[in-house]
Structures are given as C-alpha cells and as structure tokens.
Specification:
This protein has about 290 residues and is an alpha/beta fold. The chain contains ten helices and seven strands.
C-alpha cells in the first residue's frame, strides 16, 4: 500500500483508503482480550437503570434523563442535529468518565497536520483534562451520509496526539510523548464499538508529511456480545439484557481513560532518564489497575 496516493484531507473525509495509505489495520478482539478482565465488571449505575426499561420508571432525575436521551438517540431525525451526542455526554457523566477535573465537550475541532498542510478533525464528543484529550467518541452518521466512522475516529486520534504533543512542547516546556494509546468509541444510535488506537511519533510524522510508515499500526476494537446480535442497531441499549452487557463494557473501558495519567508519569520519567524505557505492553494493552 506504500504506492497509494496521499492527499491532505480533514478527518471527516478519511476512509478505508487513508487507513491503508498509512499502514493502519483494525483488528477485533473478544471482551477478555480487549478489556483485559474476565468477567466484565458490574456497571457502576443505579439498580433502577439495570432493572427498569423506561424513563418514566426512573426515580432519579439523572437516570430519567439518561433514558430519555437514549430514546431520542434511537430515533434520529435526518434534518436535525443528532441526539446521539447528547446521549453520549450524559452517559459518560453518569458512568464517571468526567469527574471534577474533566470536561465532556461536543464537536471539538482538533487541528490535523497532514501532507504538509493544516486540516481539522472534528470529533462529536470528547473527554478532556487540562486540554489533554483523553477519550474520543464518533457517531456513525451513515443514516445521513455514506461515511465510515472508524477512519474518522482514527484521524481524530492522530490529531489528538499531535495536539497534545504541541501543547506539551510549546506551552508546558516538556518533551513530546513518543507514543500513546488513545481510547475511542463509535456510536450507532446507542450501540457502541470500542477502540484502542495506538499512535506513535512515526505514525504522526507519516501523516504530517504524507509518507508511508514502515511500522504497521494495529487498532484493536471490540463489538459487545449481545443476546440478539442481528438486532443490535435496532435495539441498542433499550432491552435490559443489552443494557447490562453494554454498560459493563463501558465500565471495563474506563480504565483505559484513567490509565493516561499513569502513562504520562512513566513518559516523564523516561524522558528525564529516571527509568530506561516504557514497557511496550503498557502502551499496546494498558490494563493495569489505576
């Protein structure tokens, strides 16, 4: 694929050709391999969310709003801005992805340096901490436009890596990170797919200068195992059995977001020579408790 044409494109215009052009492959894994835990942890939500199907059944206002946003996200209106983003923001807050020091942002515009030019990657939802991007969420908008959300998510992860490193060097006076795993989620209605996107300086440079990286990038993904997989898009999180399984996946995935601060410490120690190197397994599959 080294001879594929590379042109400067915004993240929303990335497709499978761009993944091939930059030696990026997506591989799906089962839950135990992807999350590094077996069985999956119980969801950290109120019992009524797991045992009562409808918003009107909820006693807590936050849980009521969660299920109302879920209903709206399951019934998109083509001429309106999708309710999936509203659902994602509220869900991430309820699940503890955005504690005091973190913010859930929508439609963040991240600079993307590609093929010697400046473009942008626009993510639907992201979790940020002190301007560092910790998690990306990309909606599947194929009900409105024929574009695959997975390449868009990868482009946003590369842009986030570039942006975070620019901030470290030009604002904080610190060395750039040599690599980072950026967690991401795509949402089709309320049905998620989870991703771990490993971004290295080699990949970021290849995108910036329009070159083919010699080292392949393997993006790992997980599609939750549901009782009726053929109906995952039409059912989403509405059935209680689906809801429990998907929320358990969200609970297990949280560690990859929380892992970032530990990784920053390891990188800082490496850059200052206090430790020799970052163990590769901590970069590719960071599953240690934090």
């Amino acid at each position: 694929m080294a001879d594929l044409l590379r042109t400067a494109k915004s993240g929303r215009d990335w497709g499978i050709i761009e993944l091939a052009a930059y030696n990026i492959e997506i591989q799906f894994q089962d839950a135990a391999t992807f999350f590094g835990v077996d069985p999956l942890p119980a969801p950290a939500v109120a019992n009524e969310v797991l045992t009562k199907p409808h918003a009107d059944d909820m006693q807590d206002d936050s849980n009521y709003k969660l299920l109302r946003y879920m209903d709206l996200a399951m019934d998109p209106v083509p001429t309106e801005e999708s309710a999936v983003n509203d659902f994602a923001v509220h869900l991430l807050k309820v699940l503890g992805y955005a504690p005091r020091t973190r913010m859930a942002r929508t439609r963040a515009d991240i600079p993307l340096r590609t093929c010697g030019e400046q473009r942008h990657a626009k993510t639907d939802v992201c979790i940020v901490d002190s301007d560092d991007i910790l998690l990306l969420v990309q909606e599947d908008k194929r009900h409105k436009e024929l574009k695959d959300p997975e390449p868009q998510l990868v482009a946003a992860a590369i842009a986030a890596f570039q942006s975070n490193n620019w901030r470290r060097v030009h604002l904080l006076g610190q060395g750039p990170l040599p690599m980072r795993m950026i967690p991401g989620i795509t949402l089709t209605g309320t049905s998620p797919t989870f991703f771990k996107v490993p971004v290295t300086q080699e990949l970021a440079d290849a995108v910036e200068f329009g070159a083919y990286p010699a080292t392949p990038t393997i993006v790992y993904a997980h599609l939750p195992k549901l009782p009726r997989p053929a109906r995952r898009l039409s059912e989403g999180m509405k059935p209680l059995d689906n809801r429990s399984q998907i929320l358990s996946c969200f609970e297990a995935f949280k560690r990859f977001v929380n892992w970032y601060r530990r990784f920053i410490l390891m990188c800082t120690l490496t850059l200052t020579g206090l430790v020799e190197r970052i163990p590769s397994q901590n970069f590719v599959n960071p599953v240690a408790d934090v």
